[in-house]
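Changelog-linked ticket: S-adenosylmethionine example.
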Amino acid sequence: MTEKQAGQTAMIMAYARAYHATHDSPKIFDDFLADALFTPEEHMQTDRDWANLLQYSHPELAATHPDQETALAWVVQLGSGPITLGRSRYAEDGLAQGLSNGVSQYIILGAGLDTFAYRRSDLVEQLRVFELDYPATQEMKRSRVATAGWSHPANLHFVPVDFTRESLVAALGRSPYDPDQLSFFSWLGVSFYLSREVVFDTLRDIASIAAPGSKIVFDYLDADAFIPEKASKYMQQMQWIAAQLGEPMKAGFEPQFLAADLDCLNLYLEENLAPSDIEARYYQGRSDRYHAVEHFHFAKAVVR
Ligand SMILES: C[S@@+](CC[C@H](N)C(=O)[O-])C[C@H]1O[C@@H](n2cnc3c(N)ncnc32)[C@H](O)[C@@H]1O
């Protein structure tokens, strides 16, 4: 993934969270600050562009000639929205549990436009937050934060990194991260853009640099997502678009082997949610079009 493209995927995810926070109820994940990261001009342009996407993603719905507002809602609810909302909720639910068990550091790998540190100023005394991402994505974020008029939280540390070029141990070594403190890591929307080797190296680094009992949550694609006969139509569309952009999705994992894979890295797989589990936990009973996305799984692992 190039840095330029990476910043774009971060913006797409944040825009979907912003849309959900300002339009939908009940909330799956309430990122009430995300909206302010975009200018009114970007809102106007993105709403129009995303609404137009309906004719490619769901031509049968586009054939009903919805107005722009409805087309936009369908594109978010059937596309980018459920990719980001469930996993962000999963991460922050896990963190909340960790906080009551003594977690004092939250490390967000591939943070993109995550607003946690700005949203949760109530935790400034209790929790140190580390955001790791490409330098260019962090620059883009800093500039949006400045435009939004937010001040930099005292407990937030930006750590620029390229996971394919520098180890997590080395990157965190340049920051005030304390390996002796109980930590919580999240790694959302990144694993499938990296090779299996880089994913495992990074997870191994977490196991080596975090205190026992520290946890990591991440989302991953199953191996079926990469088998054309087994991949859903939506997954094939996503992969086609990613490949056209020169950013192929690279790695998937067999859910049934993940526990053994992580065990070799000194991590215990505490939870491994399939799309059906995610649907039951976060999407069941809604009257809109949000549903868990096929092939996307959530994992939570503990450092031994
Ligand atoms: C799809 S976005 C997800 C952002 C955020 N976690 C979210 O859920 O909204 C992927 C993020 O990972 C970052 N990323 C991708 N590859 C990376 C790499 N090799 N090194 C550092 N960051 C990377 C991108 O810059 C981007 O912010």
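Closing comment: Example verified and attached. Residues 1, 6-7, 9-10, 13-14, 84, 110-112, 114, 133-134, 137, 161-164, 188-190, 193 surround S-adenosylmethionine (CB under 6 Å). The chain has one domain: 82-303.
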